[in-house]
User: What shape does this take?
Amino acid sequence: MTAPDLDLGAVAPLCVVAVGAALMPLLDVLLGRTKTFLSRPVTAAWAGTVMSLATTGVLSIALVMCFDAAGAAPRTFNRDHPMILMDGMTSFLNIVILIGSLLTALASGKFLADLAINRGEYYALLLAAVLGMMLLVASTNLMMLFVGLELMSIPIYAMAGFRRDSLRSNESALKYFLVGSFASGILLYGTALIYGATGTLSLLEIGARFDVDDPVLLIGSGLLLVGLAFKIATVPFHQWAPDVYEGAPTLVSGLMATTVKVAAFGALLRVFQMAFGPIDDLLYPALWVMAVLTMTVGNVMAIIQQNTKRMLAYSSVAHTGYLLVGILVGTQVGISAVLFYLLAYTFMTLGAFGVVAVLAHAGRERERIADLAGLANSRIFLAAVMTICMVSLAGIPGTAGFMGKFYIFRAVVEQAIATESSSLLWLAVIGVLNSAISLVYYLRVPMVMFMREPEPGPEPDRSGTFEGLVLAVCAAAVILLGIWPEDLNLILTRVDVLHWASVASASP
Amino acid sequence: MEIPVGHYQFVAAALFMIGVVGMLVRRNVIVMFMSIELMLNAANLSFVAWSRLWDSIDGQIFVFMVMVVAAAEVAVGLAIIISLIRNRDSVNIEEASLLKW
Assistant: This one.
């Protein structure tokens, strides 16, 4: 028996994050035991800042490594059995995930301190979840996909319930846990059926051996898709999202709405491209209906929300719908549009959740949209960031959100003209109409901030240094991606999703 | 006499359905939680039987992964349920209704 041919360099970013996750509890204990540092007393807030900076550091190292890997040729960890594939798409999604979690980690120090939940486990859980997300987008095998999915989900369940004394946080964690593990159970049984029908767990092999008339295989594929649909919160599997996002600590909600969704979408893209090619015709109508319902229900429900986090949750459901449209197109242009949209969406949603997180500081939660009244007078910076994010989420030209929607709908229309498909054209029309509906609730937020008089009461706190930095980065990225998207999009269209085929032919 | 794979698959499917129905019908959080475990174990049984049919080791390795994941899920899930019981003194999911609409 020969030793397996392993390429540790390919998974180096994952190793960095894993080591970071393992060392974080040790750092926590170490800081807890240290009474003074450089003859100054160690306070809990100071220790929290150190933990948050250490986590940011670990994530930045992994981020730099992913940038390095992005231009290189695709690599697999085990060349004989490629279960982890680091190609252009993996690297890009890893970069999006790392940027999102890095910004969250940086803002977490002051956020946790203000809520008096400044505990080190948070950062260990965060890093473990990030590792799971990176595994998930790199997996080309159903076993790795399941392990990645669970490694991502389980820490997030715990993070959602991180405010142990808050009933709302408890309830959010419980709902997320029950729905999430129910979805994992469905996905797992689907995996078992697919394995039974094809005798393999490799996505490419499944695609090659796909028998369209095998009922076991079709049921298995359906269950697998339902499991993933729960994770990305598409209608009709979205009911948990608003409840969970509302109750969880705000930054954790931001993390769930962005990086978790990015990772699950990455897995969905892989499964579609590698395994489910043969049943495209069967999936098309189901996904078409799902995309339309997701966009419409998300946008309509968002209009009637009074709570900012809940409104953002429904908005994230609506954006899942736009992303599904991009997946439905299935062309190279469509996939690169989805990738661009995921990046833009991460910045604008994180910025919006970040502002809500900063406002929670003054002792009371300012979660209702009405609580934002007069914010432009008291905290112009927060109001400006929130306005930029809302304008971008609504898809107004000059912002990242507009370019994302533009690329997706351009891909849809191009494909519709190329294949003379009227259903695709209708999809684009419904998508644009939905963008118009979304203006109602997105623009209400700036209106309340700039036009309404504030309610009497204490002024909201200023944002901390790092929080301010995070918000500024989000706002700047939203505008830069909106003004100069072409450079990035050029890189993306070169991300050759068809590299997978070459990896497949190399494996026995 | 060898028991055919179909028999195992039938039992696995029945277990899975019991789990799904339990999850949807029961209102006690701990029973719902056990229903989820039942779903995972149904998949395990299915994996082992398929693994035998295909004469491939993948399915059996997968079962170990699932067991590890299920153990981790139990740890986190019970912790969440305990913190809920501490704050609310109830395991009825109907009473967890602060967050809606």
About this structure: Residues 69 and 75 of chain B are 10 Å apart (CA to CA).
